[in-house]
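Researcher: Hi, I'm a grad student and pretty new to this. My advisor asked me to get structures for two proteins we've been looking at. I'm not sure of the right format, so I'll just paste the first sequence and hope you can take it from there.
Model: That works fine. Here's the first sequence with its structure tokens right after it:
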Amino acid sequence: MKDDLQKAKEFCYLLLKARDRSEKEILQRLSAKKFSTETIEHAIQDLKTSGLVNDRQFARNWIQTRLSKSYGLKRINFELREKGISDGLASEELSQLLTAYPQEDVVLSLIKERARRYRKLDVSKRKQRLFAYLIARGFSSNIINQEIKKFFKSDDECTLTKFAKVS
């Protein structure tokens, strides 16, 4: 028992060396290694006691990392649920960190960045591709539609201004 517990904890340390893990992730990985339920429970309890596994801290770090990579709230929330974070905890942490996250600005910058790739496509096809890309990143359709309209309105104005100066 003690030997198994030590092996389980060493495996957990190896996992945690790469990145923070949620309790569910640790449980799944230990189960996949065929440790007994009792060993898994003891190992997780020891990790929680020592502060190495903390779902609240994991959620906070995960959200900050994903926001810095320009992901939307829906995707982040989905990923947290996949990693075993409760809806209540995920919502609480998201609401605390969201106040400093300007979703509209992020969506608009992603549109500007991505629109260059689609410049040879007609406007409706460009809009479709941008919408699909942003939905996959986890942004809400309302914000996406609002920012796509804003972008193409300003893009049309720039195009009209260029033609007006040329003629």
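Researcher: Oh nice, that was easy. Here's the second one.
Model: And its structure:
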Amino acid sequence: MSKMQTAAIGFAAGIFGAALTIGGYQYYLQSKSGTYKTAANLSEGMQMFSQMRVSVEEYYMTQGRWPYSNRAIGFPPPGRISGKVVSSVEVMEGGVVAINYKPEVVGQPATLVFTPTANHGGGMGMVDWKCKTDLPTKYTKVLGLSCTAM
């Protein structure tokens, strides 16, 4: 084999290797962007939760107990609080807030449940929120949540 043929084969192998690397990287980006796109949709529920959270905490501070329903904190019934990907947001006994997602978001109905706990050690008005969910971990991590499985 001549030096020219060896160089041509080496060049072709290099291009083939680069194509595999670029293709693999593009697949990686597409799989990540799908996760981020889904997480962006899930953030709609987090925005709704942040509104409910303030009202639940205010109720606790003024009443000395947790609210038991949407009505107790002045919000419409759960099914009337919905959006593009959220089917309902509900305040339950003990101030627990449940965000229910439509099935098309992650391929099945999904729920995020936030449970408040008064933290009197941190001063008046401190509330810790624990999260439980049946969402895949990859989405809760992108949302910045540390949830336990339901």
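Researcher: Is there anything I should tell my advisor about the second?
Model: You could mention this: The beta strands are 86-92, 96-101, 110-118, 127-133, 148-149.
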